[in-house]
Design brief:
The protein is an all-alpha fold and about 625 residues long. The chain has helices at about 20-30, 45-55, 55-60, 60-70, 75-100, 115-145, 200-210, 225-240, 245-255, 255-270, 275-285, 295-305, 315-320, 325-360, 365, 370-385, 390-420, 425, 430-445, 455-465, 470-500, 505-525, 540-570, 575-580, 605, 610-615; strands at about 5-10, 15, 170-175, 180, 185, 535, 535-540. The chain has a three-stranded antiparallel sheet, with no helix packed on it. A two-stranded antiparallel sheet has the order 1-2. α5 packs antiparallel against α14, α9 runs antiparallel to α17 and α13 packs across α17 (about 390-420).
Length: about 625
């Protein structure tokens, strides 16, 4: 082993080193922010952001959108929105978080009038963590069922299978009320074959979910899923037990392991019959589709939700960076890597889906699916038809677990850090207890999602959570930082961290292009909003009312805390308004040595604590 500079192996102690070099080494190794801590390793932040951004949507949504919207031609609008909206928002949030060194609530000391946007992000993340862990729960259930010599969804011989279960290809022609199969057999209108289900479909719907008739019949809770849900929350708790110090180490595995699995699945899939058909269906461009408005809207929505701005997770992760960290480099790398992963995942997915279509003797479009149907029905059906199928199921669902955990870490840390930073006197000292109680609360709130009617609640929650609140938050971020606080001030802040001001391109994007794009996504998200259905079940009006209440709660934090902050301020209406649109005295770098005493007063001169962090005072 090579000797370390300035260190004597024989003596086991530090030798004299140049003062500047020794100080630099000490700064790199220790925490700048002793109260909150910093990332330990140089790759902790980038891998955490990569794991947070690269989630289940890259695996089960992007490939489906790609083949649905013109194959390779879909990459044109997708990459366009990546650079117009995705990268700018990503860079804005990591710069903002790194500069102020605090979570998404106190970060709004830059403009207290909009502190409700921080609470909006926290409520959004909290809502999502409740049902997002249900996906990890399902993955754990399938993962445990892979420890067998024969997968339980490989045939129709199980006690949960019905007369509608068919294992092989069901091809034929339907003429004058008679269905003639390719093998010569004929069946009439009443035949079960017209309602045929695959073994994987019945395993998902009847065995694991024990799906009820609808949302009005919630039924009982599966004890197997309950144990998996407990396991999921225990894993999350243990991984974030010590905050970024523990999660920052876990991501070295969870953020990189999916790439290995995708590579293995791609190599295996490429050797199978029918793989070329699946890849052709996925990649062959149909440039005529670029004239379809829906293609561009799908691309914008996918980019927006894939990278994860507005939830508070990116800002929280960046707040644990050291002040001089090159966050612009990481923002660009992670944004591009996220999109590249989506394309790469599509290759692995559609090579296997192509093989499934070949085995069933149907077109690729008939077996391709999106969301849970792809991950828990179509793909398991394909895996079950491979030699050594339990092995392939094992690594696939282990990959789903790691993908879900990374995103879950980011959302949970966003909630915990935001509240601990806003109320440090009450929560920071007891952060472990607070984390445990939050995980316990989320577990109990997740129980309805694993009941017999849980899949309907899951679909309703997934449809309505996010959307409005998330897009409003991102628009207000751009307006508040680059217009109200001001481009000139923010560029000086970035210069303090990175040593140079951002180029004019970032100003154009942040002030004009990105907020307008977010507004575009907001509008198209609600154009053509129709009735919600799942597996033939149409949601009643009262279910939509519940959905809209869930959707409205996060953005309602914005006007509520406008009123709260206004009442906390002092003076006339005009004086209060001026105070509320100006940074508080505590705004600025979170560590005193980076506060110049002119633009940003030393924190010791202001006083720390809850009151100091929240009090609205003129600069």
């Amino acid at each position: 082993m090579a000797d370390n500079p300035g260190f004597s192996i024989e003596e086991g102690k530090k030798e004299d080193a140049p003062p500047d070099k020794a100080k630099k080494e000490e700064d790199e190794k220790g925490d700048e922010n002793e109260e909150r801590g910093n990332w330990t390793g140089k790759l902790d932040f980038m891998l955490s952001c990569l794991g947070y951004a690269v989630g289940l949507g890259n695996l089960w949504r992007f490939p489906y959108l790609c083949f649905k919207n013109g194959g390779g031609a879909f990459l044109i609008p997708y990459l366009t929105f990546l650079f117009l909206c995705g990268v700018p928002l990503f860079f804005l949030e990591v710069c903002w978080g790194q500069f102020c060194g605090c979570g998404p609530i106190p970060a709004w000391n830059v403009m207290p009038l909009l502190k409700g946007v921080g609470y909006c992000a926290v409520v959004l993340s909290f809502f999502v963590t409740i049902y997002y862990n249900i996906i990890i729960t399902w993955s754990l259930y399938y993962f445990f069922n892979a420890f067998t010599l024969k997968l339980p969804y490989s045939d129709c011989s199980n006690d949960w299978n019905t007369e509608y279960c068919f294992e092989g290809a069901i091809n034929g022609s339907y003429v004058d009320g008679v269905y003639t199969l390719d093998n010569g057999a004929t069946v009439d209108n009443d035949s079960n074959i017209l309602n045929a289900k695959t073994p994987s479909n019945e395993f998902f719907m009847l065995k694991m979910l024990n799906k009820s008739e609808g949302l009005n019949v919630m039924g009982g809770i599966s004890w197997q899923l309950c144990l998996c849900l407990i396991c999921a929350w225990v894993i999350v708790f243990l991984c974030i037990l010590k905050g970024i110090k523990s999660a920052g180490k876990v991501v070295y595995f969870t953020a990189t392991f999916p790439y290995l699995v995708l590579f293995i699945l791609l190599i295996r899939g490429a050797t199978l019959d029918g793989a070329a058909d699946g890849l052709r269906f996925y990649l062959v461009p149909e440039f005529s589709r670029l004239g379809d408005f829906q293609v561009w809207s799908d691309a914008a929505i996918q980019i927006f939700y894939s990278l994860g701005p507005g939830w508070g997770g990116l800002l929280t992760f960046a707040s644990y960076n050291k002040f001089k960290h090159n966050c612009m480099r990481d923002a660009v790398i992670v944004s591009i890597a996220n999109s590249a992963t989506s394309i790469y995942a599509g290759l692995a997915i559609f090579s296997i889906v192509g093989h499934l279509s070949y085995k069933l003797g149907v077109g690729v479009s008939e077996v391709a699916a999106s969301g849970p149907s792809l991950a828990f029905e179509a793909y398991p059906e394909a895996l079950a038809r491979l030699p050594a199928s339990p092995f392939w199921a094992f690594i696939f669902f282990f990959m789903l677990i790691t993908l879900g955990l990374d995103s879950q870490f980011g959302m949970m840390e966003g909630v915990i850090s935001a509240l601990a930073d806003e109320y440090p006197r009450y929560l920071r000292k007891y952060k472990v207890v607070f984390t445990a109680l939050l995980c316990l609360l989320c577990f109990f709130l997740g129980l309805p999602f694993i009941s017999e009617g849980g899949i309907y609640l899951f679909t309703l929650w997934d449809t309505y959570v996010g959307g409005m609140g998330l897009l409003c938050a991102c628009i207000l971020e751009c307006v508040a930082i680059t217009w109200v606080y001001g481009w000139d001030k923010f560029s000086l802040d970035i210069e303090m961290m990175l040593g140079k001001k951002p180029i004019i391109l970032w100003r154009i994007l942040w002030q004009f292009v990105t907020p307008l794009t977010c507004f575009f996504v907001l509008v198209i998200s609600y154009i053509g909003w129709g009735e919600l259905t799942y597996d033939g079940y149409t949601y009643p009006a009262w279910a939509h009312s519940i959905g809209w209440i869930v959707a409205i709660i996060p953005p309602s934090m914005i006007p509520i805390f406008m009123v709260v902050e206004y009442l906390k301020a002092e003076g006339s209406f005009r004086e209060r308004l001026r105070y509320l649109v100006s940074p508080t005295k505590t705004w600025g770098p979170g560590v005193d040595k980076f506060r110049d005493g002119v633009r940003y007063l030393k924190l010791g001169e202001i006083g720390k604590g809850d009151e100091g962090a929240n009090k609205v005072t003129p600069v």
